[in-house]
Amino acid sequence: xxxxxxxxxxxxxxxxxxxxxxxxxxxxxxxxxxxxxxxxxxxxxxxxxxxxxxxxxxxxxxxxxxxxxxxxxxxxxxxxxxxxxxxxxxxxxxxxxxxxxxxxxxxxxxxxxxxxxxxxxxxxxxxxxxxx
Length: 132
What we know:
CATH superfamily: Son of sevenless (SoS) protein Chain: S domain 1
Largest sheet: 2 strands, antiparallel
Order of helices and strands: EEHHHHH
CATH architecture: Up-down Bundle
Number of helices: 5
Strand order of the largest sheet: 1-2
Radius of gyration: 16 Å
Structural class: mainly alpha
Shape: globular
Helix content: 40-55%
């Protein structure tokens, strides 16, 4: 089954806008790398950053898992995580070669799915789902 990404349907690819995420960027004084703090976001953007293919922020994961019940139920989160996990492949107009598709799968799909697994393994989240 060839599922191509339609950016209007796959809600975890929306560009960062003031209407869906508020981020404070700050530079780390000890290195040239910059970091950021999410001040507010839609649930879709929170899940996108929770399972982001490039950024892994253990503090954010911990904070998210401690607070998510204030804006969604465990089952709603589970359904959104499953939706995030099922990443459709980009339209053929975006990727021209098999090599580009392999790179997309390796550098985008695999990290997202690994982060998804990390959330699913979290004992607190599993207990929340079972209790709900």
